[in-house]
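Predict structure. Input: VCBS repeat-containing protein, 353 residues.
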Amino acid sequence: MSQELKFVSNSRNVLGQSKDKSASISAGDIDNDGDLDLIVANGRHWPESNKIFINNGYGKFTVSKLLDQLEETSYATELADIDNDGDLDIAVGNDMAPNAIYLNDGKGNYTRSTNFGEAYSPTRNLKTVDIDLDGDIDILITNRGKENEICLNNGKGIFSKVLKFGSKDDSTIDVAVVDINKDGHLDLILANRDQQQNYIYLNDGNLNFTEKIPFGTGKDETRSVGVFDFNNDTYLDIVTANIKEPNSIYFGSKKLDFSKQEAFDKTASNSYSMDFGDLDGNGSYDIVVANVNEPNMVFLNLGKENGWQKIILRDKPFYTYDIILADLNNDNRLDIIESNSEEMNFIYLNILK
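Output follows.
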Protein backbone atom coordinates (compact mmCIF):
# COMPACT_ATOMS: atom_id res chain seq x y z
CA MET A 1 0.00 0.00 0.00
CA SER A 2 1.22 3.52 -0.71
CA GLN A 3 2.58 5.83 1.99
CA GLU A 4 0.61 8.88 3.12
CA LEU A 5 0.78 11.39 0.30
CA LYS A 6 -0.06 15.07 0.25
CA PHE A 7 0.36 17.78 -2.38
CA VAL A 8 0.85 21.25 -0.91
CA SER A 9 0.17 24.42 -2.84
CA ASN A 10 -0.05 27.89 -1.33
CA SER A 11 0.29 31.53 -2.34
CA ARG A 12 4.07 31.14 -2.76
CA ASN A 13 3.85 27.99 -4.85
CA VAL A 14 3.01 29.80 -8.07
CA LEU A 15 4.93 31.02 -11.09
CA GLY A 16 4.27 34.74 -10.72
CA GLN A 17 0.91 36.45 -10.37
CA SER A 18 -0.01 36.94 -14.02
CA LYS A 19 -2.73 34.92 -15.70
CA ASP A 20 -1.23 34.22 -19.09
CA LYS A 21 -2.53 31.90 -21.79
CA SER A 22 0.03 29.25 -20.82
CA ALA A 23 0.18 26.19 -23.04
CA SER A 24 3.16 24.14 -21.88
CA ILE A 25 5.97 23.97 -19.37
CA SER A 26 9.43 22.39 -19.31
CA ALA A 27 11.87 21.80 -16.43
CA GLY A 28 15.66 21.78 -16.45
CA ASP A 29 18.73 23.30 -14.79
CA ILE A 30 18.99 26.41 -16.94
CA ASP A 31 21.69 28.21 -14.92
CA ASN A 32 23.76 25.14 -13.90
CA ASP A 33 23.31 25.68 -10.16
CA GLY A 34 22.02 22.18 -9.33
CA ASP A 35 18.27 22.76 -9.21
CA LEU A 36 15.47 22.66 -11.75
CA ASP A 37 14.23 25.87 -13.35
CA LEU A 38 11.11 26.26 -15.50
CA ILE A 39 10.28 27.70 -18.93
CA VAL A 40 6.65 28.43 -19.80
CA ALA A 41 5.18 28.76 -23.30
CA ASN A 42 2.50 31.44 -23.46
CA GLY A 43 0.02 32.68 -26.02
CA ARG A 44 -1.32 29.71 -27.96
CA HIS A 45 -3.27 31.58 -30.71
CA TRP A 46 -2.71 35.05 -29.19
CA PRO A 47 0.83 36.49 -28.95
CA GLU A 48 2.32 36.68 -25.46
CA SER A 49 5.83 36.55 -23.98
CA ASN A 50 7.41 33.25 -22.94
CA LYS A 51 8.85 33.28 -19.43
CA ILE A 52 11.75 31.74 -17.51
CA PHE A 53 11.43 31.06 -13.77
CA ILE A 54 14.60 30.56 -11.74
CA ASN A 55 14.56 28.15 -8.78
CA ASN A 56 16.11 29.44 -5.54
CA GLY A 57 17.07 25.87 -4.59
CA TYR A 58 14.10 25.27 -2.33
CA GLY A 59 11.36 24.93 -4.92
CA LYS A 60 10.51 28.65 -4.81
CA PHE A 61 10.72 30.76 -7.95
CA THR A 62 11.76 34.19 -6.75
CA VAL A 63 13.33 35.37 -10.01
CA SER A 64 11.67 35.42 -13.42
CA LYS A 65 12.47 36.96 -16.78
CA LEU A 66 11.15 37.07 -20.30
CA LEU A 67 12.75 34.69 -22.77
CA ASP A 68 12.52 37.41 -25.40
CA GLN A 69 10.91 40.81 -25.89
CA LEU A 70 8.97 39.23 -28.75
CA GLU A 71 5.40 38.13 -28.14
CA GLU A 72 4.50 34.99 -30.06
CA THR A 73 1.75 32.39 -30.34
CA SER A 74 3.70 29.73 -28.45
CA TYR A 75 2.31 26.28 -27.79
CA ALA A 76 5.49 24.51 -26.68
CA THR A 77 8.89 25.14 -25.13
CA GLU A 78 11.44 22.34 -24.71
CA LEU A 79 14.80 22.39 -22.94
CA ALA A 80 17.72 20.45 -24.47
CA ASP A 81 21.41 20.91 -25.27
CA ILE A 82 20.86 21.70 -28.92
CA ASP A 83 24.35 22.95 -29.83
CA ASN A 84 26.32 20.37 -27.79
CA ASP A 85 28.07 22.86 -25.53
CA GLY A 86 26.94 21.41 -22.20
CA ASP A 87 24.06 23.73 -21.27
CA LEU A 88 20.32 23.71 -21.87
CA ASP A 89 19.00 25.62 -24.87
CA ILE A 90 15.33 26.24 -25.67
CA ALA A 91 13.22 25.25 -28.65
CA VAL A 92 9.97 27.20 -29.05
CA GLY A 93 7.05 25.93 -31.13
CA ASN A 94 4.57 28.53 -32.39
CA ASP A 95 1.14 28.37 -33.98
CA MET A 96 1.28 29.84 -37.51
CA ALA A 97 4.57 31.63 -36.75
CA PRO A 98 8.22 30.57 -37.15
CA ASN A 99 9.59 28.12 -34.57
CA ALA A 100 12.79 29.33 -32.95
CA ILE A 101 15.95 28.17 -31.14
CA TYR A 102 17.37 30.13 -28.20
CA LEU A 103 20.97 29.38 -27.21
CA ASN A 104 22.16 29.45 -23.60
CA ASP A 105 25.40 31.25 -22.67
CA GLY A 106 25.91 28.77 -19.80
CA LYS A 107 24.47 31.10 -17.16
CA GLY A 108 20.82 31.00 -18.19
CA ASN A 109 20.93 33.96 -20.57
CA TYR A 110 19.40 33.28 -23.98
CA THR A 111 19.97 34.62 -27.47
CA ARG A 112 17.62 33.87 -30.35
CA SER A 113 19.60 31.84 -32.88
CA THR A 114 17.76 30.25 -35.78
CA ASN A 115 14.40 28.93 -36.92
CA PHE A 116 13.44 25.32 -37.54
CA GLY A 117 10.71 23.53 -39.47
CA GLU A 118 8.25 25.06 -41.88
CA ALA A 119 7.73 28.74 -41.15
CA TYR A 120 3.95 28.87 -40.75
CA SER A 121 2.47 25.64 -39.45
CA PRO A 122 -0.20 24.87 -36.83
CA THR A 123 2.41 23.58 -34.35
CA ARG A 124 1.03 22.03 -31.18
CA ASN A 125 3.97 20.25 -29.60
CA LEU A 126 7.70 19.59 -29.77
CA LYS A 127 9.82 16.61 -28.83
CA THR A 128 13.60 16.95 -28.41
CA VAL A 129 15.37 13.63 -28.96
CA ASP A 130 18.30 12.16 -30.89
CA ILE A 131 16.09 10.28 -33.31
CA ASP A 132 18.85 9.40 -35.80
CA LEU A 133 21.24 8.34 -33.00
CA ASP A 134 24.11 10.48 -34.28
CA GLY A 135 24.90 12.16 -30.95
CA ASP A 136 22.95 15.41 -31.23
CA ILE A 137 19.43 16.53 -30.38
CA ASP A 138 16.84 16.59 -33.16
CA ILE A 139 13.37 18.14 -32.92
CA LEU A 140 10.01 16.58 -33.80
CA ILE A 141 7.13 18.95 -34.52
CA THR A 142 3.50 17.88 -34.26
CA ASN A 143 1.03 19.91 -36.31
CA ARG A 144 -2.74 19.93 -36.08
CA GLY A 145 -4.13 19.49 -39.58
CA LYS A 146 -0.81 19.27 -41.40
CA GLU A 147 2.04 16.81 -41.84
CA ASN A 148 4.34 16.44 -38.85
CA GLU A 149 8.04 17.20 -39.13
CA ILE A 150 11.39 15.76 -38.06
CA CYS A 151 14.10 18.44 -37.98
CA LEU A 152 17.58 16.90 -38.06
CA ASN A 153 20.41 18.64 -36.24
CA ASN A 154 23.73 19.06 -38.05
CA GLY A 155 25.52 18.91 -34.69
CA LYS A 156 25.75 22.68 -34.31
CA GLY A 157 22.12 23.52 -33.67
CA ILE A 158 21.16 24.06 -37.32
CA PHE A 159 18.15 22.17 -38.67
CA SER A 160 18.37 22.40 -42.45
CA LYS A 161 17.16 18.84 -43.14
CA VAL A 162 13.44 18.27 -42.52
CA LEU A 163 11.60 14.96 -42.91
CA LYS A 164 7.86 14.35 -42.64
CA PHE A 165 5.89 11.75 -40.69
CA GLY A 166 2.22 10.90 -40.39
CA SER A 167 -0.37 11.88 -42.99
CA LYS A 168 -1.03 15.28 -44.55
CA ASP A 169 -4.19 15.89 -42.54
CA ASP A 170 -3.11 14.47 -39.16
CA SER A 171 -4.39 16.37 -36.14
CA THR A 172 -1.40 15.35 -34.05
CA ILE A 173 -1.11 16.94 -30.62
CA ASP A 174 1.61 14.80 -29.06
CA VAL A 175 4.21 12.18 -29.95
CA ALA A 176 6.24 9.74 -27.87
CA VAL A 177 9.59 8.53 -29.20
CA VAL A 178 10.77 5.10 -28.06
CA ASP A 179 12.05 1.79 -29.45
CA ILE A 180 8.74 -0.01 -29.03
CA ASN A 181 9.60 -3.14 -31.06
CA LYS A 182 13.10 -3.58 -29.58
CA ASP A 183 14.97 -3.44 -32.89
CA GLY A 184 17.38 -0.68 -31.88
CA HIS A 185 15.57 2.11 -33.77
CA LEU A 186 13.37 4.83 -32.29
CA ASP A 187 9.71 4.60 -33.28
CA LEU A 188 6.91 7.19 -33.11
CA ILE A 189 3.68 6.90 -31.14
CA LEU A 190 1.18 9.56 -32.24
CA ALA A 191 -1.66 11.11 -30.26
CA ASN A 192 -4.25 12.37 -32.75
CA ARG A 193 -7.44 14.24 -32.00
CA ASP A 194 -10.47 15.18 -34.15
CA GLN A 195 -11.57 11.53 -34.08
CA GLN A 196 -8.55 10.36 -36.03
CA GLN A 197 -6.90 6.99 -35.60
CA ASN A 198 -3.88 6.86 -33.29
CA TYR A 199 -0.86 5.11 -34.79
CA ILE A 200 2.53 3.68 -33.97
CA TYR A 201 4.97 4.42 -36.80
CA LEU A 202 7.85 1.93 -36.94
CA ASN A 203 11.33 3.14 -37.89
CA ASP A 204 13.05 0.98 -40.53
CA GLY A 205 16.46 2.22 -39.38
CA ASN A 206 16.69 4.92 -42.05
CA LEU A 207 14.03 7.23 -40.61
CA ASN A 208 11.37 5.84 -42.92
CA PHE A 209 8.09 5.42 -41.04
CA THR A 210 5.92 3.68 -43.60
CA GLU A 211 4.87 0.71 -41.42
CA LYS A 212 2.21 1.70 -38.91
CA ILE A 213 0.18 -0.04 -36.21
CA PRO A 214 -3.17 1.36 -35.03
CA PHE A 215 -4.15 1.56 -31.37
CA GLY A 216 -7.21 2.86 -29.56
CA THR A 217 -10.81 2.93 -30.76
CA GLY A 218 -10.08 4.63 -34.08
CA LYS A 219 -12.15 7.69 -33.16
CA ASP A 220 -10.34 8.95 -30.09
CA GLU A 221 -9.74 12.58 -29.18
CA THR A 222 -6.25 11.98 -27.80
CA ARG A 223 -4.21 14.97 -26.64
CA SER A 224 -1.36 13.32 -24.77
CA VAL A 225 0.54 10.05 -25.02
CA GLY A 226 3.34 8.37 -23.07
CA VAL A 227 5.12 5.03 -23.05
CA PHE A 228 6.28 2.91 -20.10
CA ASP A 229 6.14 -0.72 -18.94
CA PHE A 230 3.34 -0.30 -16.41
CA ASN A 231 2.75 -3.99 -15.69
CA ASN A 232 6.44 -5.00 -15.57
CA ASP A 233 6.19 -7.68 -18.26
CA THR A 234 9.17 -6.27 -20.26
CA TYR A 235 6.85 -4.96 -23.00
CA LEU A 236 6.24 -1.22 -23.32
CA ASP A 237 2.68 0.03 -22.79
CA ILE A 238 1.00 3.16 -24.15
CA VAL A 239 -0.90 5.55 -21.88
CA THR A 240 -3.30 8.14 -23.34
CA ALA A 241 -5.15 11.21 -22.12
CA ASN A 242 -8.36 11.83 -24.06
CA ILE A 243 -11.15 14.37 -24.43
CA LYS A 244 -14.62 13.24 -23.32
CA GLU A 245 -13.70 9.55 -22.95
CA PRO A 246 -11.80 7.38 -20.45
CA ASN A 247 -8.03 7.74 -20.16
CA SER A 248 -6.46 4.40 -20.88
CA ILE A 249 -3.39 2.18 -20.92
CA TYR A 250 -2.85 -0.09 -23.93
CA PHE A 251 -0.65 -3.00 -22.93
CA GLY A 252 2.18 -4.13 -25.14
CA SER A 253 2.93 -7.72 -26.05
CA LYS A 254 5.11 -9.73 -28.39
CA LYS A 255 2.43 -9.29 -31.07
CA LEU A 256 2.57 -5.47 -30.91
CA ASP A 257 -1.21 -5.29 -31.30
CA PHE A 258 -2.03 -3.32 -28.10
CA SER A 259 -5.47 -4.94 -27.92
CA LYS A 260 -5.45 -5.35 -24.13
CA GLN A 261 -6.65 -2.11 -22.58
CA GLU A 262 -7.39 -0.71 -19.12
CA ALA A 263 -9.08 2.58 -18.25
CA PHE A 264 -7.15 3.95 -15.27
CA ASP A 265 -9.47 6.99 -15.35
CA LYS A 266 -13.02 5.94 -16.17
CA THR A 267 -14.42 9.48 -16.23
CA ALA A 268 -15.08 11.24 -19.53
CA SER A 269 -13.11 14.36 -18.68
CA ASN A 270 -11.58 16.98 -20.97
CA SER A 271 -8.05 15.65 -20.49
CA TYR A 272 -5.40 17.72 -22.26
CA SER A 273 -2.14 16.44 -20.82
CA MET A 274 -0.62 13.88 -18.48
CA ASP A 275 2.68 12.79 -17.02
CA PHE A 276 3.78 9.79 -15.00
CA GLY A 277 6.34 8.82 -12.36
CA ASP A 278 6.59 7.27 -8.89
CA LEU A 279 4.86 9.82 -6.67
CA ASP A 280 4.32 7.70 -3.55
CA GLY A 281 7.61 5.79 -3.46
CA ASN A 282 6.13 2.32 -3.84
CA GLY A 283 8.17 1.44 -6.94
CA SER A 284 5.34 1.73 -9.46
CA TYR A 285 4.50 4.58 -11.82
CA ASP A 286 1.58 6.85 -11.02
CA ILE A 287 -0.19 9.21 -13.43
CA VAL A 288 -1.20 12.88 -13.20
CA VAL A 289 -3.87 14.20 -15.57
CA ALA A 290 -4.51 17.81 -16.62
CA ASN A 291 -8.12 18.65 -17.39
CA VAL A 292 -9.87 21.63 -18.93
CA ASN A 293 -12.73 23.16 -16.94
CA GLU A 294 -12.54 20.23 -14.50
CA PRO A 295 -10.24 19.49 -11.53
CA ASN A 296 -6.86 17.96 -12.27
CA MET A 297 -6.32 14.46 -10.96
CA VAL A 298 -3.65 12.15 -9.55
CA PHE A 299 -3.97 8.40 -10.05
CA LEU A 300 -1.81 6.32 -7.70
CA ASN A 301 -0.86 2.89 -8.99
CA LEU A 302 -1.51 0.48 -6.11
CA GLY A 303 -0.72 -2.66 -8.09
CA LYS A 304 -2.71 -5.29 -9.93
CA GLU A 305 -4.85 -6.27 -6.94
CA ASN A 306 -5.72 -2.79 -5.66
CA GLY A 307 -5.97 -0.83 -8.91
CA TRP A 308 -5.80 2.97 -9.02
CA GLN A 309 -6.44 5.45 -6.21
CA LYS A 310 -7.84 8.78 -7.42
CA ILE A 311 -6.84 12.06 -5.74
CA ILE A 312 -8.26 15.47 -6.69
CA LEU A 313 -5.31 17.82 -6.94
CA ARG A 314 -7.36 20.96 -6.29
CA ASP A 315 -11.14 21.09 -6.07
CA LYS A 316 -11.32 23.88 -8.61
CA PRO A 317 -11.54 23.71 -12.40
CA PHE A 318 -8.81 25.32 -14.50
CA TYR A 319 -7.97 25.30 -18.18
CA THR A 320 -4.81 23.23 -17.74
CA TYR A 321 -3.01 22.65 -21.02
CA ASP A 322 0.06 20.92 -19.61
CA ILE A 323 1.13 19.16 -16.42
CA ILE A 324 4.58 17.79 -15.56
CA LEU A 325 6.41 16.02 -12.74
CA ALA A 326 9.80 17.23 -11.50
CA ASP A 327 11.70 17.34 -8.20
CA LEU A 328 11.78 21.09 -7.61
CA ASN A 329 13.09 21.20 -4.02
CA ASN A 330 15.71 18.43 -4.22
CA ASP A 331 14.01 16.13 -1.70
CA ASN A 332 13.95 13.13 -4.08
CA ARG A 333 10.19 13.36 -4.48
CA LEU A 334 8.37 14.33 -7.65
CA ASP A 335 6.38 17.56 -7.45
CA ILE A 336 3.57 18.63 -9.82
CA ILE A 337 3.57 21.76 -11.99
CA GLU A 338 0.53 23.04 -13.89
CA SER A 339 0.47 25.16 -17.03
CA ASN A 340 -2.87 26.98 -16.91
CA SER A 341 -4.51 29.22 -19.47
CA GLU A 342 -5.83 32.51 -18.05
CA GLU A 343 -5.01 31.43 -14.51
CA MET A 344 -1.84 31.41 -12.41
CA ASN A 345 0.46 28.43 -12.89
CA PHE A 346 0.49 26.43 -9.66
CA ILE A 347 3.12 24.17 -8.10
CA TYR A 348 2.19 21.29 -5.80
CA LEU A 349 5.00 20.12 -3.53
CA ASN A 350 4.96 16.40 -2.78
CA ILE A 351 4.84 15.74 0.97
CA LEU A 352 5.33 12.00 1.43
CA LYS A 353 5.29 10.70 5.01
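Residues 182 and 235 are 9 Å apart (CA to CA).
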